[in-house]
Amino acid sequence: MIINTTHHNPKHKQIIADIVGDQYSLVQKLKMNGVGSKRMIVGDVSPNMKNLMNRVSDINYASIELRPKGILVRITQGLKNFTWIIPFYQLVIYKTNGSSIHAQGKFIHFIDSKSFKENKGFFQKLMNEKIKYDQQYAMPNS
């Protein structure tokens, strides 16, 4: 689900909390050594997300925030902000010439740039959180 978060709307906060959980507390954020990525350059998006990208030749940026049950991909288009809400059970990450996030029939590809390299530790933390989430629902060995 993608919502326009340019202006504050209490309903959006509730929708996000219902899908991917509330924000981590300050203590949890400190223990995790941060829950947000630095902004990364968007290389490509799926056709159903092209309307969220800048139409002129500006560089598009996005960042990722971890939540207990998923992630938020925050996309900036000029003065507008959009948030793509992705629960862990829908999240698929591919590492190909950068990294791409796939979910809900959409994808966003981050190019392999200096800003992407600075987020290597964050992507490792993201994968660890997804694995922890998936293990809660793992089938027991017979």
Could you tell me the CATH topology label. Answer: PH-domain like
Structural class: alpha+beta
Task: Write down the CATH class.
Answer: Mainly Beta
**Got a strand count?**
8
Count the helices. How many? 4
Q: Record the strand order, biggest sheet.
A: 1-5-4-3-2-8-7-6
Q: Element order, helices and strands? A: EHHEEEEEEEHH
Q: Could you report the average pLDDT, rounded to the nearest whole number?
A: 88
Strand proportion, as a percent range, falls in: 25-35%
Helix content: 25-40%
Largest sheet data: 8 strands, antiparallel
Radius of gyration: 15 Å
Overall 3D form: globular
Oligomeric composition of the shown chains: single chain
Distance between the termini: 37 Å
CATH superfamily annotation: Pleckstrin-homology domain (PH domain)/Phosphotyrosine-binding domain (PTB)
Which CATH architecture is right?
A: Roll
Q: Which spans of ≥5 residues are poorly predicted at pLDDT below 50? A: none
How would you describe the overall organization of this protein?
By secondary structure, this protein is α+β, with helices and mostly antiparallel strands. The chain has one domain (2-136): PH-domain like (Roll). The chain contains 4 helices and 8 strands; from the N terminus they run βααβββββββαα. The protein has helices at 10-20, 26-31, 114-118, 120-136, and strands at 2-4, 40-45, 61-67, 70-77, 80-87, 92-94, 98-103, 106-111. The longest helix has 17 residues, at 120-136.
